[in-house]
Amino acid sequence: MTIYLQKKINPDYKRKILVIGVFHGDEPQGEYFINTYLKKNKKPEKNTVFYIPRLNLSNTRKNKNGVDLNRNFPTKNWIKSENNDYFGGEKPNSEEETSFLVDLIDNENFDAIITIHSPYKVINYDGPAESLSKEIQKFISYPITNDIGYPTPGSFGTYCGVERKIPTVTIEIDENEDIDILKEKFHGLFEFLENNW
After folding, report:
1. 172 is an active site residue
2. pLDDT score for 3
3. For residues 31 and 158, what is the distance between their CA atoms, to the nearest angstrom?
4. Of 19, 11, 18, residue with least CA distance to 46
């Protein structure tokens, strides 16, 4: 398995940011937003941004092993769940994708992390990310919440935002919104993260 990671590096960066496109394989829009943006190939003026267009290489919610990656992180609240759409694996951090992210976050001092999901049309944040969420809302005009409304044991947001105190924002896009209109909104957001935040 190869996870494609591209860095847009400013050697004098003020902040370091991670953007992840596809956690769930059946939510592919983030990959499109990132890949079309990376083709512009402009150097950041202020910050360094790490982009992962597609973390989950399957075309289903779960990965090739039938595990929901967003329930597989080694959090204090991880539980072995029923083997359904939200199955978090036989043990936490059991999946290659999860271990890749855990290692990346251990080795890099990220100032913020953003993931792109669908379909709830909301900006959901974990940890100290309310102010960043308000900045994101200027580009993606969705409601902001710190509670997605259901339990998420072993989630990436809990692992990074709640337990590690890294501002972590999940943008849940409206899958019925025009993809090219959304693309332009995300391109504006990525430019902001690289040059203005």
Report:
1. yes
2. 79
3. 23
4. 11
Residue (of 60, 69, 67, 72) closest to 23 by Cα position: 69
Q: What's the pLDDT tens digit per position in 78-130?
A: 999 888 889 999 999 999 999 999 999 999 999 999 999 999 999 999 999 99
- pLDDT digit string (tens) for 21-66? 999 999 999 999 999 999 998 899 999 999 999 999 999 999 999 9
Residue 113: helix, strand or coil by DSSP? strand
Task: Spot the catalytic one: 172, 177, 184, 194.
Answer: 172
CA max distance for the chain: 47
At 29 the three-state DSSP class reads: helix
Q: Which residues of 77-111 are buried (b: 16+ CB within 10 A; e: fewer)?
A: ebeeeeeeebbbbeebbebebbebbbeebeeeebb
What 3-state DSSP class applies to 59? coil
- Its pTM stands at 0.96
The CATH number assigned to the domain with range 6-195 reads 3.40.630.10
